[in-house]
Amino acid sequence: AIPMIEMNDGHRIPQLGLGVWQDDDAQAAAAVRCALQAGYRLVDTASIYENEAGVGNGVRESGIERAEVFVTTKIWNADQGYQAAQDALHASLERLGMDYVDLLLIHWPVPSRDLYVETWRALIKLREQGLARSIGVSNFRADELHRLFKETGQLPAVNQIELHPWLQQGELRTANGVHGVRTQAWSPLGQGKVLADPLIAGLAAKHAKEPAQIILRWHIQHGVLVIPKSANPERIRANADIFDFVLDEDDMAALAELDRGQRIGPDPATFGA
Ligand code: A2P
């Protein structure tokens, strides 16, 4: 079974879930149904993915009760601000066909616009209203987390960041950890690009697992939350089949050597400006 991890607000989150970026509504619905039937209990979408309706349909069609499923969505950059962010969640809930989300994230800080603190105040209100059970951020750096805390007294439950063997984010994982903010990895497989790394292939052969399973297991053993994206039923199932083996110390040390500070996605310092 997929481990449940406690967050700093007392709620629990599945350590592994399904990503649906780049799926259309029909693909998202099919992927969500497949994943929930395979034992997943978390789906990570965003308003900018334009597939929240598909995610909602997939959850309803799965036969798994809404209360058993952990649904994350995100406030897009253009919807930052105290009122706009609240309106954006209402629109997301409408598309999802749900009356709450389990986790609501600010998708990017967009430091140049300097609206993320006001947006964070909106998320605090939405949590008080029960429309978002937990609230967090994505792509925030340590100084931005500190500012949220300094100005509102409230820390995010989660900081979802680009994280994979080529971008291991040691400092930011530590900064999250000291504040009890859970680190969640987006593109945990480096959008699939890290799968071909020869070291990963060697470990896959050693453990009789697939490259993706080696990388996801590495995240899990670091205590990181992961949301691998797949639209393929076999790969969806394989990505959750990682709780029957353990990477040893030598494996973990070898994987640590792959860190090269290489982003595949945008730089949060400038994205959305
Ligand atoms: P697909 O949807 O066709 O399975 P990330 O989550 O790091 O962004 O990676 C997602 C990419 O990796 C997608 O292109 C996805 O393709 C691919 N992918 C996901 N799981 C696997 C897997 N187990 N083996 C190979 N490729 C995978």
Describe the structure.
It is built from ten helices and ten strands. The chain is 40% helix and 15% strand. Strand 8 (158-162), helix 6 and strand 9 form a beta-alpha-beta unit. The protein has one domain (12-195, 223-231): TIM Barrel (Alpha-Beta Barrel). It has an eight-stranded parallel β-sheet. A two-stranded antiparallel ribbon has the order 1-2. The longest helix has 15 residues, at 82-96. The mean pLDDT is 98. The chain has 273 residues and is of the alpha/beta class. It has helices at residues 25-37, 52-62, 82-96, 116-128, 142-152, 170-178, 198-207, 211-221, 233-239, 249-256, and strands at 4-6, 12-14, 18-19, 42-44, 70-75, 101-106, 132-138, 158-162, 182-186, 225-226. It binds adenosine-2'-5'-diphosphate. Residues 19, 187-192, 195, 210, 212, 228-232, 235, 238-239 line the site of adenosine-2'-5'-diphosphate (A2P). It holds the Pfam family Aldo_ket_red. The active site is at 49 (proton donor).
Low-confidence stretches: none
> What's the total helix number?
10
Basic shape: globular
Indicate the CATH architecture. Answer: Alpha-Beta Barrel
